[in-house]
Amino acid sequence: QVQLVESGGGLVQAGGSLRLSCAASGLTLRNNAMGWFRQAPGKEREFVAASTWGGYSTYYADSVKGRFTVSRDNAKNALYLQMDSLKPEDTAVYYCKADARGGRTESVSDCPPRICYWGQGTQVTVSS
């Protein structure tokens, strides 16, 4: 049974930093594309950052480029999101996604069962 468990969220002032973690079980992280998404109140879930299988390639939403860094530790089966220079508009629930197809995984809706999985999310709140 695949489980993705996010942690590291919390309340931070604008300009501060947080590091999110996603612990994966029931899958081999190295073989999966892994991504971070977020959903603010009243808005749709959106892509934040991701890496292709093995972590060989990373890519970001324009809104977080230069401020967020996605990384993974395949040996620990863990994905991370370092968030710096946080802004109030970064406030959202942040979700981890695993995609066994291994390629780019920016889509929210393209997540077939038994191939793609979501975590339960962790809340990030940035105060002004």
Walk me through what this model shows.
This protein is mainly β. The protein contains no helices and eleven strands. The protein has strands spanning 3-7, 10-13, 18-25, 33-39, 46-51, 58-60, 68-73, 78-83, 92-99, 116-118, 122-127. Strands 2, 4, 5, 6, 9, 10 and 11 form a seven-stranded mixed beta sheet that branches. Strands 1-3-8-7 form a four-stranded antiparallel beta sheet, with no helix packed on it. A hairpin with a 4-residue loop joins β7 and β8 (78-83).
List the helices and strands and how they pair.
Blueprint: E1 3-7, E2 10-13, E3 18-25, E4 33-39, E5 46-51, E6 58-60, E7 68-73, E8 78-83, E9 92-99, E10 116-118, E11 122-127
Parallel strand pairs: 2-11
Antiparallel strand pairs: 1-3, 3-8, 4-5, 4-9, 5-6, 7-8, 9-10, 9-11
Contiguous low-pLDDT stretches (5 residues minimum) are: none
The structural class is mainly beta
- The shape, in one word, is globular
The radius of gyration over CA amounts to 13 Å
Q: State the order of secondary-structure elements, H for helix, E for strand.
A: EEEEEEEEEEE
Fraction of helical residues: under 10%
By DSSP (H or I, 4+ residues per run), the number of helices equals 0
- pLDDT average, as an integer? 96
* Main sheet properties: 7 strands, mixed
User: What is the distance, rounded to the nearest whole angstrom, between the alpha carbons of the first and last residues?
Assistant: 40 Å
